[in-house]
Amino acid sequence: MKRRIIEILRNGQPDESVTVQGWVRTKRDLKGFAFVEVNDGSSLASLQAVLKAEMPDYEATLKQINTGASVEISGVLVPSQGKGQRIELQAETVKVFGDADPETYPLQKKRHSFEFLRTIGHLRSRTNSLGAVFRVRNACATAIHQFFQERGFLWVHTPVITRNDCEGAGELFTVTSLDLKKIPQTDNGKIDYSQDFFGGQAFLTVSGQLEAEVMAMAFSNVYTFGPTFRAENSNTSRHLAEFWMVEPEMAFCDLVGNMDLAEAFLKHIFKYVLETCPEDMDFFNQRIDNSVLATADNIINNQFERITYTEAIAQLEKATKTFDYPVEWGLDLQSEHERYLAEELFKKPVIVTDYPKQIKAFYMRVNDDDKTVRAMDVLAPKIGEIIGGSQREERLEVLEKRMQAQDINPDDLWWYLDLRRYGTVPHAGFGLGFERLVQFMTGMGNIRDVIPFPRAPLSAEF
Ligand code: ATP
Ligand code: MG
Ligand code: MG
Ligand code: MG
Questions:
Q1: Hey, which of 116, 311, 378, 446 has its CA 20 to 30 A from 130?
Q2: Residue 66 CB coordination number (10 Å)
Q3: Residue limits of the Aminoacyl-transfer RNA synthetases class-II family profile domain (predicted)?
């Protein structure tokens, strides 16, 4: 019977007949017999198959089986004599689907640097580390849906092409409808991009929030989970031009409800991943960052710290550490400040609330002091900001004033204002950067290594 390797490694019993399909990780030819490790992506560990010289076409088969070759092996499971594995496969037949020339196949048994692996993005998923990353990424996504579905949130699909820039959160990519046969030309012969989207202007979404608010005003609790785009030319280890965001939006909810949800949400995801991917998480702890398991334990078992922006500034002013960027009430926190608070001062995630209104988006609920807004950022050790959210401004007149102050044309967002005209309610939501979550969970240092196809400004790594 055809079986996934993870099931065999976990539950396979001696004398069971099985067939596995996968890619060869290593081959050891010991004259008279050979060990072949096969991996099908289902688990970190590979299954060891033993090929004996008595097999039909033994020599010819062995020649074809090199690292990277794709194979199907049928045989019987037997207890393994070797260390590190419980069971192995005594091969009876081997079929090679495609060989891989050892002279040119770029993956070897040795450890490759992540920089090198980025140059072979189409093959890097066959390594232990990237395999573990993408299994954990999948588990995080599953946990996210599970969390919201169990709580009755509706998964809504917000558009990728949109006419609003949400908040000017980042630089926008514009969408242009180019008819290649009639490319509009300007006088200097360059392409005229002002044609844009069927005569109007459109962008790739930087956040699904505003549209999620539309849906929350009918379904109460919703979430959107999809790709977002920011043309930011920042070559950092935590920014991509294309990344995934999870954005819940809750009607009849305030900032405290929002913080409670964000905290329960992160705890749930960590618990789920520890339960479903224990081998992968152990691997990260051993090979990538030896605080990964302690961090997971910390997230699950401790309450996050909650402080206001004003308190955060006071703490940063008291710090003996010197920062590159100034600390001053009214300026945004930089990643070094965020990391100091989470990593060094509180040693756990910190939720910072009530930021000055001039550094936050127009839609955030203004506090009675008229100086701060009900914003919240969740800061994670080693990463900094992982979640940004807020209670939204539900009062029409205040929202209109804020838009005016930020030079936002109300005609562009007439539908958004309508939500305040007809049945407005206090509501709140947040955005979690999905790749930053995966980084946080795995200890991976560079965001380009936690997404299968990273889209980022060209850099030395590409
Ligand atoms: P930062 O300050 O790190 O640039 P931001 O405040 O611009 O983030 P938000 O607009 O609040 O980001 O977006 C919500 C979340 O999306 C962030 O908390 C972060 O986790 C994630 N995020 C934002 N920009 C990027 C990006 N370019 N690449 C990957 N994730 C991102
Ligand atoms: Mg940003
Ligand atoms: Mg920020
Ligand atoms: Mg933010």
A1: 378
A2: 18
A3: 134-452
pTM of the model: 0.95
What ipTM did this prediction achieve? 0.99
Residue 102, number of CB atoms within 10 A of its CB = 12
Question: Is the distance from the beta carbon of residue 256 to the nearest atom of ligand 1 less than 6 Å?
Answer: no
pLDDT in tens, 376-395: 999 999 999 999 999 999 99
State whether the beta carbon of 339 lies less than 6 angstroms from ligand 1. Answer: no
Burial of 104 (0-12, 13-18, 19+ CB in 10 A): exposed
Sign of CA dihedral 89, 90, 93, 99: positive
Residue nearest to atom 10 of ligand 1 (CA): 169
User: Is ligand 1 within 6 A of the CB of residue 230?
Assistant: yes
Burial letters for 340-372: b for 16+ Cβ neighbours within 10 Å, e otherwise?
A: bbbbebbebbbbbbbbbbeebbbbbbbbeeeeb
Nearest ligand to residue 230 Cα: 1
Tokens coding 424: 């407005």
Choose the residue to mutate in 363, 434, 436 for probing ligand 1, maximizing ligand atoms within 8 Å of C-beta.
436
* Nearby residues for ligand 4 (ion, Cβ within 5 Å): 388
The C-alpha angle with vertex 371 and arms to 164 and 261, in degrees rounded to 5, equals: 65
Q: Are 62 and 27 in contact (CB under 8 A)?
A: yes
